[in-house]
Amino acid sequence: MTTSADGWPATGARSITAHIRAVAEAVAAQASARTDGGERVRTETLPLAAAAGRVLAADVTANRDLPGFDNSQMDGFAVCAADTPATLPLAPMIPAGHWPDPLPEAQAAPIMTGAPIPAGADAIIPIEDTDATSFDAAVRAGQITVPEVSAGTFVRPIGSDARTGDLLLAAGTRLTVPGLGTIAALGQTEVAVHARPRAVIYTGGDEVTAPGTTPLPPGALYDANLTMLAAWLDRNGVAVAASRLISDTVADFAAVLEADLAAHAPDLIITSGGISAGRYEVIRQALEGCAAFGSVTMQPGGPQGLGTHTSGAVIICFPGNPVSTWVSAEMFLRPALAEAYRCTSAHRWQPAALSEDVTPLARREQIRRGTWHTDDTGHVTAAAFSGTSSHLLAAAAQATALIRIPAGDEVVPAGSTVQILPLEEAHGE
Ligand SMILES: Nc1nc2c(c(=O)[nH]1)N[C@H]1C(S)=C(S)[C@@H](COP(=O)(O)OP(=O)(O)OC[C@H]3O[C@@H](n4cnc5c(N)ncnc54)[C@H](O)[C@@H]3O)O[C@H]1N2
Ligand code: MOO
């Protein structure tokens, strides 16, 4: 189990930015090795509605014109613009889904939205712009009075959205809802996408107990981190192949890891806990040969580990405090996944004015949990929760934003501009 351990500065800690880069580089190197024409390249074919957020494996080219024929943009009357303004006799009704006969000269055909424009017509007049109170009334009257229009009015021309042969979605695109609709509009039911990157996740320590276990032994607590990591990875486009609580025995963890690597060939090995300065740091002791451990000037999430296993899987180790685990995933793993696999979106930090004074840490940048608010004028404010400790998970569950408070010796006064990351799964006010 030896390979390129990620170098950490021999003295001191790494900045947040430096660790974001290091994780992104490790994941990018792994992802490009994985998609380098070898057997690790994996694609799968999914029904369209199941493919939102997935990454296209092949270009999507238009196999037809969209729209496929000139058609009406309005419920109204198809006319030849040169005949208007006029009172015109009515031609037969043209419902959507029926191919019409040509429009007789100097007549108007009632036509529905989406119906093909008859030969001889070149403009549509919406019913509300005529003297008809309804289509039935117009048919009864046998004629319609229309204002002057120019050719092309409310006509959706063939190919105005896409032309046969156009490249509509390039391989590597992350599929959006309109993207999936476009593929359906071409007549397809399925789409080939990159398989999600695969992760195995571990946390533990002798005190950490699986939820559902009763009674909870003295000194123990329920595991929150596997649930968070599994949910977070799923939301960010990663498949979780194995999720395990481990004991404090290094040999046991090493055996479990080897078995999971053989069974699942993961792209990512994600761990939580067991990496700081204690006597029983099982993750660190087991992975020290292939990952580097050090600290990042961030709170929560100071202790971190990063490396590449001989199997090719990237090893990413987060500290065990629950808020540290979650914030670390958000800060370090999300940008790396967005860049290397495009399976999630990159961060969108935005400026906001602090609504209250905040006392920073002297040497570590804080990622505070809090709320954000946009007023009627678009002015964005953010309020940090008072508690900063990384065990305050229930408080973090109330957060709608992460708030960056740079290290410093002086109070950051209310009104100061800071960067916030609105949390997609929580509602901004
Ligand atoms: N002497 C030092 N002690 C600590 C330092 C340090 O620099 N020097 N750093 C502190 C910081 S900051 C953090 S963060 C933690 C990180 O420690 P580990 O990553 O080794 O995590 P553990 O010790 O295993 O656990 C920390 C904490 O979190 C609880 N935990 C762990 N796993 C889970 C889980 N799956 N679900 C819920 N809670 C979990 C665990 O019981 C501990 O309370 O180290 C500090 N110490
Ligand atoms: O850095 Mo630790 O994550 O403060 O709690």
UniProtKB/TrEMBL annotation:
<dbReference type="InterPro" id="IPR036135">
    <property type="entry name" value="MoeA_linker/N_sf"/>
</dbReference>
<comment type="function">
    <text>Catalyzes the insertion of molybdate into adenylated molybdopterin with the concomitant release of AMP.</text>
</comment>
<dbReference type="InterPro" id="IPR038987">
    <property type="entry name" value="MoeA-like"/>
</dbReference>
<comment type="similarity">
    <text>Belongs to the MoeA family.</text>
</comment>
<protein>
    <recommendedName>
        <fullName>Molybdopterin molybdenumtransferase</fullName>
        <ecNumber>2.10.1.1</ecNumber>
    </recommendedName>
</protein>
<feature type="domain" description="MoaB/Mog">
    <location>
        <begin position="200"/>
        <end position="339"/>
    </location>
</feature>
<dbReference type="InterPro" id="IPR001453">
    <property type="entry name" value="MoaB/Mog_dom"/>
</dbReference>
<dbReference type="InterPro" id="IPR036688">
    <property type="entry name" value="MoeA_C_domain_IV_sf"/>
</dbReference>
<dbReference type="InterPro" id="IPR005111">
    <property type="entry name" value="MoeA_C_domain_IV"/>
</dbReference>
<keyword id="KW-0501">Molybdenum cofactor biosynthesis</keyword>
<keyword id="KW-0460">Magnesium</keyword>
<dbReference type="InterPro" id="IPR036425">
    <property type="entry name" value="MoaB/Mog-like_dom_sf"/>
</dbReference>
<keyword id="KW-0808">Transferase</keyword>
<dbReference type="Pfam" id="PF00994">
    <property type="entry name" value="MoCF_biosynth"/>
</dbReference>
<comment type="pathway">
    <text>Cofactor biosynthesis; molybdopterin biosynthesis.</text>
</comment>
<dbReference type="Pfam" id="PF03454">
    <property type="entry name" value="MoeA_C"/>
</dbReference>
<keyword id="KW-0500">Molybdenum</keyword>
<keyword id="KW-0479">Metal-binding</keyword>
<dbReference type="InterPro" id="IPR005110">
    <property type="entry name" value="MoeA_linker/N"/>
</dbReference>
<dbReference type="Pfam" id="PF03453">
    <property type="entry name" value="MoeA_N"/>
</dbReference>
